[in-house]
# Entry
Amino acid sequence: MTVNSPEFFLLLSALVFAIGLIGLIIRRNPLVMFMSIELMLNASNLAFMTFSRFTDKTPGLQGGPADGPVFTFVVMTIAAAEAVVGLAIIITIFRNKRTVDVDALAELKG
Amino acid sequence: MSEFLIVLAALITFGAAIGVISSKEAVHSALYLTVHLLGVAALFLALHHQFLAVAQMLVYAGAVMVVFIFAVTTLSPHEEPLKLLDQNGLPLVGVGAGIFAFIGLCWTFQNGAIANVTNSTDAPVDLAPASSFAYDLFGRFLLPFEGTAFLLLTALIGAIILGGRRQIGDG
# Structure
């Protein structure tokens, strides 16, 4: 496996996605959980960019060289919006309950 | 970009991702995440797309991380104890899910995607000009682009409503 190959970037992407998933499950701080979600989004972005870079652009086929980057662009926008709204929600919860531990938020538990 | 730099960026990206989920303090996680995002920007550059590399640095490592660090410093600067191997084996579940996702992604890439990927590394690919990206973004993808504008507006209004003090009604 050479360095400048799709396998290299895709392996890194899968690794980072797995790390983000592990962090999302094992950490109890909602801020760190948010950062783990950002890791997963970035891993998908990396996969999009890799496919955009290494896929053969046949003129007759649907799709163009900017398809992957446009997806990455939209994911970045969604990540920014998600971070803003999510952190606002976390700050509101902290204002009301004085804690940010997700295990302490169990009012809905039957 | 030389292979040494690509490997270096990949190692930094990977190590910083490990650091995000293993730091005790949330501030350290945020700083590791910044390093990770800059590494991903370098990898975007290695994948011949400068525009998104710059956007990654400005939007992600700049703006989003400012929001993150603001929230981290506002809330609970105390250390979170890294609870390992307690709470019903939750870490084991997490690691298992991570390994499962990794294997599944590798399998999917190998069987579904790599087959359609040509190894065009030998071809002299110059950097993708930002103009072609702009033509596609404002041409075929104009509707999603306007959709992102609407999404950001919605997020802005939502953040104002969530963060604002209630003055009318319940006080």
